[in-house]
UniProtKB/TrEMBL annotation:
UniProt catalytic activity: (6S)-NADHX + ADP = AMP + phosphate + NADH + H(+); (6S)-NADPHX + ADP = AMP + phosphate + NADPH + H(+); (6R)-NADPHX = (6S)-NADPHX; (6R)-NADHX = (6S)-NADHX
Co-factor binding comment: Binds 1 potassium ion per subunit.
Molecular function in Gene Ontology: ADP-dependent NAD(P)H-hydrate dehydratase activity; ATP binding; kinase activity; metal ion binding; NAD(P)HX epimerase activity
Function: Catalyzes the epimerization of the S- and R-forms of NAD(P)HX, a damaged form of NAD(P)H that is a result of enzymatic or heat-dependent hydration. This is a prerequisite for the S-specific NAD(P)H-hydrate dehydratase to allow the repair of both epimers of NAD(P)HX. Catalyzes the dehydration of the S-form of NAD(P)HX at the expense of ADP, which is converted to AMP. Together with NAD(P)HX epimerase, which catalyzes the epimerization of the S- and R-forms, the enzyme allows the repair of both epimers of NAD(P)HX, a damaged form of NAD(P)H that is a result of enzymatic or heat-dependent hydration.
Entry protein name: Bifunctional NAD(P)H-hydrate repair enzyme
Keyword line: ATP-binding, Isomerase, Kinase, Lyase, Metal-binding, Multifunctional enzyme, NAD, NADP, Nucleotide-binding, Potassium, Transferase
Binding sites annotated in the UniProt record for AMP: G407
Binding site for K(+): N57, D113, S149
Length: 461
């Protein structure tokens, strides 16, 4: 897991005060990291256009130009001149070197966007917007310095932003890079150390970026076992039975020893999945909500009142009967629209999906502060898993998953782990990593995935 921060100002301050580093040293390391990336990936003499803004983001760009000068064909473009003290200092240094400034944007092998970084504090004016649009149209490799220009510190893209192939971010990972709106712009993310190893200046945080190593698959280590050793999941199927069946199949493929679909009508199920009309006596986990539609309220109340590990999905986020359950340890897996309904139901906020997507981290925090026992998994391009004060970010997901039924697979995977005695948070983290990494491993065209393909990939992880 890597650390993510809302802001890195306090980390910079620590470098200055505790380790006697200076702004100049920090900036030199920031620029050197980008220079190293270019040297490792591009041939000498390639042309590098560096677009520098008026503040310290631009100053990073100017320092980069100095470092690459003579080895590469450096073209510095400063549309707003140099305003911050560091920008003026770096500009003076490049001028002393004899590097002349360019007056316009021109085709180059590499473009570095050092226009605005963490200091973007207002809407882009027409000139900046034109620059960003022009850069986006260039058919070159694009590197963003710190954060693609146009993305603000919350990760919102209110007009347009630079489309980076790689973002080299300064000091530490920031929340802004992981908001869904930023995902199309940031490209591959790398972190530049600020003069000492990151682990020395990084402080405690409550936001974490999940890595592949955080996935703890339900691999079987004991030889002396039987099907009952791996739990019995009950999936409640409502009017759209397919959703429950998809979840049940995913759960079975992910290791649950027994899986039953609870349904009043007789339904066609694969031979290895059982059907019951009521909860099984030896049930070790419940999955409810997916495709539920209208269901007998009293019956749902009875199911939710059971002290059995439970995952709630889909239709139930619109129903008041779940409110009581939120006081207990339960997993919730809403997509943005369902989460907006839930926020309203819980009297936390009455917002649109657009408003939610602008501030995903904030609303997850608000919900988890009110319901600290709940594990909340907010779906999206980057999934956020919140529990009490902590948020875990999974950025492995891709648009391959944008299909009806993908969420039902995820519910099934989580439910499977709950049935196999994982705690709620571990189940949500491992199942979500498995879900996204399976989709990543899928080799056919990215428009073609169906739920059973996803389950097949999960089996191969
Ligand atoms: N902290 C550190 O130790 C380190 C920091 N580092 C680097 O510093 C960067 C932060 O620098 P920063 O604070 O100077 O802000 P920055 O992003 O350059 O923007 C401010 C300038 O842009 C202007 N401006 C803003 N919005 C605008 C708009 N919409 N349209 C037009 N103009 C707009 C704004 O104008 P003003 O508000 O003054 O009118 C001001 O002139 C950070 O991202 C990283 O790259 C690294 O070197 C490592 C060490
Ligand atoms: N563009 C995307 N990038 C990453 N993950 C995605 C993307 N689109 C969808 N997903 C994931 O696919 C799943 C979709 O779930 P959901 O919308 O509930 O589908 P359904 O209810 O039809 O099964 C979620 O886990 C979501 O995070
Ligand atoms: K930038």
């Amino acid at each position: 897991m890597q650390h993510i921060y809302y802001e890195v100002g306090s980390l910079d301050k620590k470098c200055y005060e505790k380790f006697a580093l200076t702004e100049d040293i920090l900036m030199e390391h920031a620029a050197s990291s980008i220079a190293r990336f270019i040297e490792e990936n591009f041939e000498k003499k390639s042309s590098v256009l560096i677009v520098c803004g008026p503040g310290n983001n631009g100053a990073d760009g100017l320092a980069l130009g100095r470092l690459l000068y003579k080895e590469y064909e450096v073209k510095l473009y400063l549309p707003f001149g140099a305003k911050s003290q560091m920008a003026k200092l770096q500009k003076n240094r490049v001028e002393l070197l004899g590097l002349t400034l360019h007056e316009e944007i021109s085709e180059s092998d590499i473009v570095v966007d050092a226009l605005f970084g963490s200091g973007l504090n207002k809407d882009l004016d027409e000139t900046s917007l034109n620059i960003i649009n022009t850069l986006n149209q260039l058919n070159t490799y694009k590197i963003a310095c710190d954060i693609p220009s146009g993305i603000n510190i919350k990760g919102q893209v209110n007009q347009e932003a630079f489309y980076a192939d790689t973002t080299i971010t300064m000091g530490a990972l920031k929340v802004a890079l992981f908001n869904d709106e930023a995902k199309d712009y940031v490209g591959k993310i790398e972190v530049a150390n600020l003069g000492i190893q990151r682990s020395i200046y990084e402080e405690k945080t409550n936001i974490f970026l999940l890595e592949k190593e955080d996935m703890n698959l339900p691999l079987r280590n004991k030889k002396n076992s039987h099907k009952g050793s791996f739990g019995h999941l009950n999936v409640i199927a409502g009017c759209k039975k397919g959703a429950g069946i998809i979840a049940a199949k995913a759960a079975f493929g992910f290791g649950a020893g027994l899986v039953s679909v609870v349904c009043h009508e007789d339904i066609d199920l694969p031979y290895h999945i059982m059907q019951t009309h009521f909860l099984s006596d030896n049930c070790t986990a419940i999955a409810i909500g997916m495709g539920l539609g209208k269901y007998e309220t009293e019956e749902i109340k009875t199911i939710l009142a059971k002290e059995i590990p439970t995952i709630i999905d889909a239709d139930l986020f619109y129903e008041e009967i779940i409110l009581e359950k939120l006081k207990s340890d339960v997993v919730l897996t809403p997509h943005p629209k369902e989460f907006c309904a839930l926020l309203k139901l819980c009297e936390i906020a009455d917002i649109s999906v657009i408003q939610l997507q602008k501030d995903r981290f904030e609303y997850v925090s608000k919900f988890c502060n009110k319901y600290p026992k709940v594990t909340l998994l907010l779906k999206g391009a980057n999934v956020l898993i919140g529990k009490d004060k902590e948020i875990y970010v999974n950025s492995f997901g891709t648009s391959t998953l944008s299909k009806g039924g993908s969420g039902d697979v995820l519910s099934g995977l989580i439910a499977s782990l709950l049935a196999q005695s994982y705690n709620s948070l571990d189940a949500a983290i491992t199942a979500n990593l498995a879900h996204t990494l399976a989709a990543k491993n899928y080799k056919k065209n990215n428009y073609s995935l169906i739920p059973s393909d996803l389950v097949e990939e999960v089996k191969k992880l």
